[in-house]
Amino acid sequence: MTRLIEIAAVGSRGELGLNGDMPWGRSLKQDLKFFKEQTKGHPVLMGRKTWQSLPGALPGRANIVITRGVIDNPKALTYPTLEEGLAALEKIEEESGNDKAFIIGGGSVYAAMIDKCDELLLTEIESTFDADTWFPEFNHDDFERTVLDTIEENGFTYSHVRYVRKPR
What we know:
With 168 residues, the chain is an alpha/beta fold. The chain has one domain: 3-Layer(aba) Sandwich (Dihydrofolate Reductase, subunit A), CATH 3.40.430.10. The chain has helices at 29-39, 48-53, 82-96, 107-113, and strands at residues 3-10, 15-17, 44-47, 63-66, 76-79, 100-103, 119-125, 133-134, 143-153, 156-165. The strands form two sheets. It has an eight-stranded mixed β-sheet, sandwiched between helices. Strands 2-8 form a two-stranded antiparallel sheet. The longest helix is centred in the middle third of the chain and has 15 residues, at 82-96.
């Protein structure tokens, strides 16, 4: 069974996005590197708006996009429903032996998947931002929380935090 991990950067109130980008822009270079290191070699599942916010397909990863529309990029594996996208993840796991996949956004995909996830890997930024997209609320008591590191960069302080779901 594929281990599902939601990975996201959030402001202190759960801020996730603003006008199709991160509210802090691309200023957290060490966090972008962390994202790449964590997801490289693993499938990533995302919604259409997250796909559109990227400069292109994420290399070294199967890019699964949930959309009813057409994406003119052969590196985007598109599926009209989350269920079909999850089935594709299972097939990738069977074929490659890869046992984990990352949910990378956006807000509605995070919300739909949070109860199915085994782990959350959050960059928690100690600032508030204007936002139009939010990470879903979740019961922190359902998870073991581990702070992996704390970084100061470009005027921001943030921590990479792993939440592992407790046995149900």
